[in-house]
Design a protein that fits this description.
Keywords: Aminopeptidase, Hydrolase, Metal-binding, Metalloprotease, Protease. One of its GO terms (molecular function) is aminopeptidase activity. Belongs to the peptidase M29 family. InterPro entries: M29_Exopeptidase, M29_N-terminal, Peptidase_M29. With 418 residues, the protein is α+β, with helices and mostly antiparallel strands. The chain has two domains: 14-186, Thermophilic metalloprotease (M29) (Thermophilic metalloprotease-like, 3-Layer(aba) Sandwich); 209-241 and 251-417, no CATH class. Helix content is 33%, strand content 24%. It has twelve helices and 21 strands. The chain has an eight-stranded antiparallel β-sheet with strand order 15-14-11-6-5-19-20-21. Strands 7-10-16-17-18 form a five-stranded antiparallel β-sheet, with helices on one face. Strands 2-1-3-4 form a four-stranded parallel β-sheet, with helices on both faces. Helix 4 (91-102) packs parallel to helix 5 (123-145), helix 5 crosses helix 9 and helix 6 crosses helix 7. The longest helix is centred in the N-terminal third of the chain and has 23 residues, at 123-145. The chain is globular, with a radius of gyration of 21 Å. The protein starts with 13 loop residues before the first helix and ends with a strand.
């Protein structure tokens, strides 16, 4: 009699995946009893979607609704759709999401797309589709960027993403390596992830409190290819780790997170800066970015790869050439120490100090929840259809805090807290 075939070993540890789902709901969202949840995910992340859905209902969720994306369907559009398709987006869907958020729903996104998915497609079509999507997404994005709701992003080791990160390994081994890296960065490879996150959040709060006490007028970044002064918005406030949304729920928007961040002044950024890691933006990798700012606005931009897409991004609207965020991350962060280039902003931004083009976060102002859009603009907050983080920190970058009187305080030296 033939022996039964042994099933292939699951490269994604199911116990740790269950912990990630629990952390997403209990730490990332702090989902409340009776609260609805709107989730987006690639189809490949279905195992995590199911576990998060289970955890959400165990936490008392009212209704969990998930929208899926499929790489093959995305590529089919570029192969077969008429040209006018690329100037359209599903505005009805985003309007529905905005309505759900206005009604009290939480939002969770599972990241894991192939960072190179659209690298061989027409960059003009990619840029047009991205802009149409940004315009359509604005009603929902405003609820998120204004921190009206509790929201969270976690990741799943999509095989196509894993193969980009660990290109020399067979598929199952690449997935296993990426899964383990995600679990470590997300602090779910320990006995008590909830307690680990409580300790980590306390450390980030201490960093934020020091920066808020200093009340710097600007930050000055210097390093290879970088001499950049980032003025900070009037009445800015530093945040890091867990934050309380306008709905009163304290959540961790990003899992993982190693950053403390605030809002720059949209008109007070001067100098030049070079990226220190590639930026993966909606299926296109943009590498070796170099830009120059005058009066807060990017006036020159180039990249060794993806330059055409970068320039289209910068032309999205007036605010796309200005900064909406500046974030500090030590070079020795666990994600940086892993030595892995994830080609995923959620991870790579937590390995390096970074800046973000576009929309600012209103919560990064003193009493931000009570400020109008006009007041935020008057204090230097930027407005845009986009919010795109890219990495400018390394072990060779120094940062000084500049006070209003021009005196300086070391903030980071060689990428580490001074």
């Amino acid at each position: 009699m033939n022996a039964p075939l042994q099933s292939a070993r699951n490269p994604v540890d199911p116990a740790k995946l269950e912990k990630l789902a629990e952390v997403a709901v209990k730490v990332g969202l702090q989902l409340q009893r009776g609260q609805d949840l709107v989730m987006t995910a690639p189809i490949a992340a279905l195992p995590l979607v199911r576990l998060i859905t289970k955890q959400a209902y165990k936490a008392g969720a009212g209704l969990v609704t998930t929208f899926y994306a499929d790489e093959e369907a995305t590529l089919a559009r570029y192969a077969h759709a008429p040209d006018e398709s690329f100037d359209r987006a599903s505005d009805w869907l985003y309007q529905g999401m905005a309505k759900a958020f206005a009604g009290g729903a939480a939002r969770l996104a599972i990241a894991g797309d192939n960072p190179m998915l659209l690298s061989s497609e027409d960059p003009q079509k990619v840029a047009r589709a991205n802009r149409a999507n940004s315009v359509a997404y604005k009603p929902a994005l405003e609820k998120i960027s204004n921190f009206d709701i509790n929201w969270n992003i976690v990741s799943y080791p999509n095989p196509s993403w894993a193969k980009q990160v660990f290109s020399d390994d067979p598929g199952a081994i690449a997935v296993e390596k990426l899964a383990n890296a995600i679990f470590a960065a997300s602090r779910v490879d320990v006995d008590d992830p909830i307690a680990a996150w409580a300790e980590h959040n306390a450390n980030l709060r201490r960093r934020s409190a020091w920066l808020n006490d200093e009340r710097f007028a600007a930050l000055h970044f210097t390093g290879p290819g970088t001499d950049l002064t980032v003025g900070l918005a009037d009445g800015h406030e530093w945040h890091g780790g867990a934050s309380t949304a306008k709905n009163g729920i304290t959540c961790n928007p990003n899992i993982p997170t190693e950053e403390v961040f605030t809002t720059p002044h949209a008109l007070r950024v001067e100098g030049h800066v070079s990226s220190t890691k590639p930026l993966s933006h909606q299926g296109t990798v943009i590498d070796n970015i170099q830009v120059r700012f005058e009066g807060g606005r990017i006036v020159e931009a180039k990249a060794s790869r993806g330059e055409e897409v970068l320039k289209k991004v910068l032309d999205t609207d007036e605010g796309a050439r200005r900064l909406g965020e500046v974030a500090l991350v030590p070079h020795s962060s666990p994600i940086s120490a892993s030595g892995i280039l994830f080609y995923n902003t959620l991870f790579d931004e937590n390995a390096s100090c970074h800046i973000a083009l576009g929309q600012c976060y209103s919560k990064c102002f003193l009493n931000g929840a009570s400020l109008s859009e006009e007041q935020i603009r008057a204090q230097g907050g930027n407005s845009s259809l986009i919010h795109i983080d890219w990495m400018i920190g390394s072990g060779e970058v120094d940062i000084d805090g500049v006070r209003a009187d021009g005196s300086r305080v070391p903030v980071m030296r060689k990428g580490e807290w001074a």
